[in-house]
Amino acid sequence: MNISTEISDRKMKQRLLKDKIFTNAMIFLAFLSGVPLFLILYQLAIKGYRQLNISFFFEEAPDTMEAMVAVANNEIIPGGIANGIVGTLIIVGLASLIAIPVGIICGTYLAENAEGKFAGLVRFIVDMLQGVPSIVLGVIGYIWIVKPVTNGFSALAGSVALSIMMLPSIVRSTEETLKMIPGTLKEAALSLGVPYHKVILKVILPTGISGILTGVILGISRIAGETAPLMLTALGSTVVNTNITEPSSAVPLLVWEFYNDPNLVNMIWSASLFLLLLILGLNLSAKAIAKKWKVQY
Amino acid sequence: MNSEKIFKYLLVSSGVLMVLIALGIVATLFVGSIPSFKEFGFGFLFSTEWDPTEGRETYGALPFIIGTLLTSILALIITFPFAFSISLFLGEYFKDGALPSFLRSVVDLLAGIPSVVYGLWGFYALKPLVAELGLNAQGFGIFTSSVILAIMIIPYASSLGAEVISMVPGSLKEAAYSLGATRFEVVRNVIVPNAGSGIFAGYILALGRAIGETMAVTMLIGNSNNMPTGIFDLGNTMASLIANQFGEAEGLKYTALIEIGLILFVITGIVNYIGKLIMKKLSA
After folding, report:
1. Beta bridge partners of B50
2. Nearest residue on chain B to A35, alpha-carbon basis
3. Bridge partners for A248 per DSSP
4. What is the mean pLDDT of residues B245-267?
5. What is the dihedral of CA B198, B201, B203, B209, to 10 degrees?
6. Cα A179-A184-A186 angle, rounded to 5 deg
7. Taking CB atoms and an 8 Å cutoff, what residues of chain B touch A106?
8. Which of B102, B101, B73, B103 is nearest to B210 (CA)?
């Protein structure tokens, strides 16, 4: 009797120990996964803050010679990333201009036709588009725009590639948001004799605006840091360029260029820091909007 | 009545546009790779030669297909303990409170870091570490890119898992607890069997991400066009090959690269389709 209780006691202890080890390992691993975020932020901040000054935002990227001289004299590299900032604004802005209206309309269509065979096909295609690798969209932008339309690398080609990339997230967030709006709201408006398109435009879409806006901002943050498709489409430029049919720079492209030029290495940290803060800011503001303006009835 | 009709047509036409974009992408890649397919046939998939020397140009995709699958599957294996821990942490152990919402934000922000920044960090922080450990002479290679990819896909691999784990019925867990099970035993015998396929679907979708990732891999894998001999060897993926060589490519090389793009498109399509299929079965 005594021996068997001792054995079961030992077994019990073993099980509890196992449980404890597992729980602690899980907590440890979960938080360890977050460490890279802080390491990356720390490294970018420590190495990048020196270059962040007024000229960083308003001057074009320096050439290799200027940078080499500055580094040799132990000064900070002159110049900034203005060509990248302007390029990113134009490319991302144009991509949004294409993708936002189409995405919202398509999301509305899917929300209004929950069943339907064609709607099912569209939903499937949007899902598949979400998974297309960004580099493949770069190839598409090259074949569709660079060769036949602009006869050379251009900001427009970059915008087209990026707009296809951001479409799925706008479509899906619009659909998900509109689906959550209770049908009574729509029925009330329809029963008052309001035409269908006005119900959608004046009642349904405004009610879901926060969810849609969240999707749009997340879509923008997804494309703002993209480098690969722009390498095949916008190519890059050493000067500020506002003509969308000409090659254009962008902040992520500049990071890539600085990375490849040993003399400009000091610039990558500040350019990356700027890019990272921009994107994390967009992400956080999307979260804040989703939280604050939750759909209310 | 008229504006009513126009509006409905507008809604449908946006759906038609989606179909056209998708068909356009497929058709473009197909047409673009015809010359290469005519030249190499299906041998393109199995040839290990990538030689752009003029006069004896031959192109084969196998080293890059293997390189892509090797890096992304290795990344998935590395990411598993971390992503699973996060899923459990957020879905079962700590659902509400400041700490889990902090972890959730951190994981979300990990998804927001641009690929090129991950690449930089990998180059300056991770690569020297790998070299110091003596795994590889310079620190470049398949293993290094897999580690970076593993960090990049943590958010995608963990979020779906957390969701399905939190949906495991409480009555099942309570029944197990009432029989005297410890929490670990509940996880192993109740939660994993119940949420397993959902967790798995999350990993499949994360795999799709890893396969198409370009910049971080390009900066770390070493860009060798030879067949990789092991996980510490240099290699190349389909995405990073296109990124490196598409700009100056012409003629046969140009269409061979488009064919690589087509293969990449098809592989990610299949992987994502399997993931969605599992998810659909779950919700049905």
Report:
1. B59
2. B106
3. A235
4. 93
5. -140
6. 70
7. 14-15, 17-18
8. B73
- Inter-chain touch B212–A143, beta carbons under 8 Å: no
Highest-confidence segment of A201-215, B15-29, B36-50 = B15-29
Which stretches of chain B are assigned E, i.e. beta strand? 50-51, 58-59
Nearest CA to B218 among B118, B124, B128?
B118
- pLDDT tens sequence across B184-229: 999 999 999 999 999 999 999 999 999 999 999 999 999 888 899 8
Tell me which of A222 and B282 has the higher pLDDT.
A222
ipTM for this model? 0.93
Read out DSSP for A132-164? S-HHHHHHHHIIIIITTTSSS--HHHHHHHHHH
Nearest to B280 by CA among B201, B206, B207: B201
Percent of chain B at pLDDT above 90?
A: 83
* Residue B227: both structure tokens together: 């067949």
Q: Are A235 and A146 in contact (CB under 8 A)?
A: no
B24 to A25: CB separation less than 8 angstroms, yes or no = no
- Helix or strand or coil: residue B122? helix
Residue with tokens 């405004």: A206
**Cα angle, residue B12 at apex, residues B10 and B17 outer, rounded to 5°:** 90
Chain A residue with Cα closest to B148: A36
Cα dihedral: A175, A280, B210, A104 (round 10):
20
For chain B, how many residues are written? Answer: 284
Question: Cα dihedral angle (A170, A173, A175, A179), rounded to 10 degrees?
Answer: -160
Name beta bridge partners: B58.
B51
- Say how far apart CA A145 and CA A95 lie, in whole Å: 14
Q: Which chain A residues are within 8 Å of B89, Cβ to Cβ?
A: 26-27, 30
Q: Is pLDDT of B77 > 90?
A: yes
Out of A7-16, A106-115, B263-272, pick the least confident. Answer: A7-16
Mean pLDDT, chain A, rounded, equals: 91
Judge: A105–B11 Cβ closer than 8 Å, yes or no.
yes
Q: Which amino acid is located at B168 in the chain?
A: V
Sequence-ordered list of residues with C-beta below 8 angstroms from that of A206, at least 6 positions apart, any chain: none
Site of tokens 């590299």: A77
- Judged by CB atoms closer than 8 Å, whether chains meet at A225 and B113 is answered as yes
pTM: 0.94
pLDDT over 60 (residue B269):
yes
Q: Is A235 left (phi over 0), alpha (psi -120 to 50) or beta?
A: left
Residues B49-76 pLDDT 10s: 898 888 888 999 999 999 999 999 999 9
What does the block give as tokens for B125? 């922080």
Token pair, residue B68, equals: 């892509």
First-to-last CA distance in chain A?
Answer: 67
